[in-house]
Write a structure and sequence with these properties.
mainly beta; 4-stranded antiparallel beta sheet; 4 helices; about 375 residues
Amino acid sequence: MNLETRCAWRTARPVVAALTAVVVLFGLTACGTAAPAATEIEVSGSIDTHDPALIVDNLGTDSAQDDVWYIYSTGDGAVGLGSPLVRRSTDQGRTWEKIGPAWTAADEPYWSRQLIEGVDNFWAPEVYEHDGTYYMYYSASTFGSNTSLIGLYTNTTLDVDSPDYRWVDQGEVLRSTWKSPFNAIDPGITEDEEGNPWMVYGSFWDGLYMVPLEWPSGKLPGQDKVSDDPLAASGVEPVQVADRGSSVNPIEAGFIYKKDEYYYLFFSRDSCCKALDSTYNMAVGRSTSVSGPYVDANGVSLLDDGGTPVLSATGNIVGPGGQSVARVGDKDILAFHYYAVDQGGMFQLGLRELAWNEDGWPVAFTAAELDTEETGSPEQ
């Protein structure tokens, strides 16, 4: 373990060792400051979520106590025609109730099943608010295939008790086929400094890509016409932003979070969805430009298998990933799923308030996790 890694990820402990280059005294690392650590939010209730998209509705008030938190997650083929599932918390993310599927049978995107044969449920939703409209992006695909699409619904409210609550189908945003270098799933939305929307997406194949969108449609520029190839019809050229450079290329679930002068590209890598055999873990790179280039804390490009570790297997947590980040007041809340050892590998919701080190990199491990040799973060 090098000095930079230790400074970034370990809490300080008294150490006396002749062969180490790191001297730690009185809770200080060789970096000169106590190492930062994340704060875990203990969750209960309906927390069997996968690929959680966290969005917080402050209801127009200045008090975080009034915030209503929502989680949109991958659907269950046996519930609501596989629609993304909605959960709600009114106590700052500690207790969750299941609301149900996002759309009704009358609003199902039947057309997506015609385009993507074999769809059972809809994956990895993303919910983003712009100018009073909520945009819900979702994935339609099947395992092991890049014959996939990303679709879009819109709503005027997140309040499921409002008479105005209804997700309205806006059709297709992006599609991939076996000829495509990418897989059109796992959408993540952000805005650049001028307020223009961008979507990061991708899973395996040639890694993560980005395309510009436009408001108020939430789609590719010029995508007001029906086409068998929305990307070609728009004339947009996707930008590759992350690649592991292997034949398998296990990278997906890109999510871009703007903080201060940087855009942070969070992503999941390695093997998901194998319960306690999962090797999923989260990493991050950053850029001063929304479309990159993104590099990690060591200056390695994400196009060259770079990535600063964020969270990996530790304690009861196996295979954390499928992440999103939401700003709540002055806090940055990371949502993710993991496979719980004490639940025999059942997937669960995890929530953490991120810490940030002195170089501006996010820390998702808690102090207790950083203080044990069992955590795998520095060696990833």
